[in-house]
Structure formats: C-alpha cells, structure tokens
C-alpha cells in the first residue's frame, strides 16, 4: 500500500501542504519514496507543562511542530528518523491518559492522545513503519536512547543531593544522561555524549562517576525499562523539549 502511494499525486500534494504550513523555516519534506501516513494533534509532555503539538507520521520520519494556526501554520519543526525510534506504552494516571514514550538516541519524550483508540492507531502505525525500515535496511533496533527529562514541577529539591531547594536564584538543571532535575553544584561536570551533542554536555556527579568507570550502561538500561513497568515513574520521568525556554539547562 505504501509503495503504491509513494509516487501518487495525492501523496505529493499532501506532503507539499505540510511543507507550506511550516514555511521557509522548515526543511523540505518531499523526497522520492516518502509517504505521509497520517497526522494529528498530540499532547507532548514538555519541561514546563504539557503542550499541544502537531505531529506528522511519514514512512521514514516523524515530524512535529508548534501550532500557530491549526491546519495552516506551524513552526519549530522537529524531524526524527524512524529507524532510530522505539516506543513504550505509559499507564494512565490522573489527567495524563493514553500516552506512550517516543525514545531516540538524541531525545526522548512522552506524548498523549485524546482517546485509547487514537493511541493504539498511532503506536501501531509507528511500529509498522519502524519494522518496515529495519527490515529493508537489515539494521537492528537501537538500544541507545536519550533519557527523558523529569518535568520541573516534579522536583522542588535536587534529586541527587536531596538538600538544595530550587528558587529563582538556585535554578533547576537537567542531567543529559539520567534526566534528573539537579542543582548547579551537583551538575558542574561535562561529558561527551556523541548521540546528543558534538560538545560535552551537563551531567550530574552520579552519572559522571558511572560513565568514568564504564558502569553506566547497565544502570541506564535498568532505568529505561522502569518507564513502561511502573505507573508512577513513567509519568515522573517523561519530559524534554528544546523548544521550551531555558531548555539548555
């Protein structure tokens, strides 16, 4: 079905409309063989609070952006190659329902659909696209995923020292390896994480010690597994967004 649509006029027209909605600031999306599978509004759990984002699923990439005028104008385009994506369901808790994690080597975050049916459709389509891509390339699924950031609102004190209280002066920072909200003194070190940046990035003292001794892989793997198994941790550890203010911390 996807192959039949690849070179159709209807598919080309749909992709062109998406390109126009992002304007000159967005990257071109039309390439041979690319098919627009579907689109819709999902709630993305950002650093500060949940926010509505427009998502577009293609057969090889996932694109999303801020909604300026629904169906007419979007900005801050993000493009995620699907062959690097894995997804995990999140259990419902409170007002956050019908969610799942989107995990990649460069960034990971949670999104929520309006209904359980919509969630199921999104997850099924994403998994199918990823499976098809890996099958064609012969590659194996990536096990290297960036940590999802704990939302600022979940931490009133540093999650490492458990002492420093956050204030307008004592700001929150995020460890790029574990995603915890930490104070400045607990995250003064930098470490090169090639999948996230070409320059050394902020990490907490705990992760620095583990990375320096080569013990980080097992720890990170166990923490990642907990997202899809524990209702509480899966909602406490799910945010990151470089279109949020102060996200560089």
TrEMBL record:
<dbReference type="InterPro" id="IPR051765">
    <property type="entry name" value="PH_domain-containing_F"/>
</dbReference>
<dbReference type="GO" id="GO:0008270">
    <property type="term" value="F:zinc ion binding"/>
</dbReference>
<feature type="compositionally biased region" description="Acidic residues">
    <location>
        <begin position="238"/>
        <end position="249"/>
    </location>
</feature>
<dbReference type="GO" id="GO:0005783">
    <property type="term" value="C:endoplasmic reticulum"/>
</dbReference>
<dbReference type="InterPro" id="IPR047966">
    <property type="entry name" value="PLEKHF2_FYVE"/>
</dbReference>
<keyword id="KW-0967">Endosome</keyword>
<keyword id="KW-0863">Zinc-finger</keyword>
<protein>
    <recommendedName>
        <fullName>Pleckstrin homology domain-containing family F member 2</fullName>
    </recommendedName>
</protein>
<dbReference type="InterPro" id="IPR011993">
    <property type="entry name" value="PH-like_dom_sf"/>
</dbReference>
<dbReference type="InterPro" id="IPR011011">
    <property type="entry name" value="Znf_FYVE_PHD"/>
</dbReference>
<dbReference type="Pfam" id="PF01363">
    <property type="entry name" value="FYVE"/>
</dbReference>
<dbReference type="GO" id="GO:0031901">
    <property type="term" value="C:early endosome membrane"/>
</dbReference>
<dbReference type="InterPro" id="IPR013083">
    <property type="entry name" value="Znf_RING/FYVE/PHD"/>
</dbReference>
<feature type="domain" description="FYVE-type">
    <location>
        <begin position="152"/>
        <end position="212"/>
    </location>
</feature>
<keyword id="KW-0256">Endoplasmic reticulum</keyword>
<keyword id="KW-0472">Membrane</keyword>
<dbReference type="InterPro" id="IPR000306">
    <property type="entry name" value="Znf_FYVE"/>
</dbReference>
<feature type="compositionally biased region" description="Polar residues">
    <location>
        <begin position="221"/>
        <end position="232"/>
    </location>
</feature>
<comment type="function">
    <text>May play a role in early endosome fusion upstream of RAB5, hence regulating receptor trafficking and fluid-phase transport. Enhances cellular sensitivity to TNF-induced apoptosis.</text>
</comment>
<dbReference type="GO" id="GO:0008333">
    <property type="term" value="P:endosome to lysosome transport"/>
</dbReference>
<keyword id="KW-0813">Transport</keyword>
<dbReference type="InterPro" id="IPR001849">
    <property type="entry name" value="PH_domain"/>
</dbReference>
<feature type="domain" description="PH">
    <location>
        <begin position="35"/>
        <end position="131"/>
    </location>
</feature>
<keyword id="KW-0479">Metal-binding</keyword>
<dbReference type="GO" id="GO:0015031">
    <property type="term" value="P:protein transport"/>
</dbReference>
<dbReference type="GO" id="GO:0035091">
    <property type="term" value="F:phosphatidylinositol binding"/>
</dbReference>
<keyword id="KW-0862">Zinc</keyword>
<dbReference type="InterPro" id="IPR037871">
    <property type="entry name" value="PH_Phafin"/>
</dbReference>
<dbReference type="InterPro" id="IPR017455">
    <property type="entry name" value="Znf_FYVE-rel"/>
</dbReference>
<dbReference type="GO" id="GO:0007032">
    <property type="term" value="P:endosome organization"/>
</dbReference>
<keyword id="KW-0653">Protein transport</keyword>
<dbReference type="Pfam" id="PF00169">
    <property type="entry name" value="PH"/>
</dbReference>
<feature type="region of interest" description="Disordered">
    <location>
        <begin position="221"/>
        <end position="249"/>
    </location>
</feature>
């Amino acid at each position: 079905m996807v192959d039949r649509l690849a070179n159709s006029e209807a598919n080309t027209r749909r992709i062109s409309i998406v390109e126009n909605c992002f304007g000159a600031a967005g990257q071109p999306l039309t390439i041979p063989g690319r098919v627009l599978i579907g689109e819709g509004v999902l709630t993305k759990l950002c650093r500060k609070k949940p926010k509505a984002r427009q998502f577009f699923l293609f057969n090889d990439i996932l694109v999303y952006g801020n909604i300026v005028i629904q169906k007419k104008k979007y900005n801050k385009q993000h493009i995620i190659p699907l062959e690097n994506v894995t997804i995990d369901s999140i259990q419902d808790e409170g007002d956050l329902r019908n969610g799942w994690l989107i995990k990649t080597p460069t960034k990971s975050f949670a999104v929520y659909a309006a209904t359980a049916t919509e969630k199921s459709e999104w997850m099924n389509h994403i998994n199918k696209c990823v499976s098809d891509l890996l099958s064609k390339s012969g590659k194996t699924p990536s096990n290297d995923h960036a940590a999802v950031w704990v939302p600022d609102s979940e931490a009133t004190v540093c999650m490492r020292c458990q002492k420093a209280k956050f204030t307008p002066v004592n700001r929150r920072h995020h460890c790029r390896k574990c995603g915890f909200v930490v104070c400045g003194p607990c995250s003064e070190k930098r470490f090169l994480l090639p999948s996230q940046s070409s320059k050394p990035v902020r990490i907490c003292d705990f992760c620095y010690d583990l990375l320096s001794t080569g013990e980080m892989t097992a720890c990170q793997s166990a923490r990642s597994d907990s997202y899809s198994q524990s209702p509480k941790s899966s909602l406490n550890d799910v945010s990151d967004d470089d279109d949020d203010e102060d996200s560089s911390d």
